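Explain this fold:

***
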Amino acid sequence: MLGPGALPQSVARVAYRLVRIPLQLIEDIALSQLDEAARTRLAYEKVLIECDLAAAHLLDDPGAAARAAALFTRTSPPSG
């Protein structure tokens, strides 16, 4: 049986996914035109990572956690 907070959490999860669509479009279309090391692009990607991490934690959303991890991996400079 689902707990009393399951429905609101599910609704919030869907709402976050809907809000995330235009944010992803901005990244895919506009920011992809910038150099990978451009400050604007890096700052925007950091905001997306933080939003996804917050959604993953607050909404118990594994999809958001996976997006945050993938974006972090893609934007992190290689170590070594």
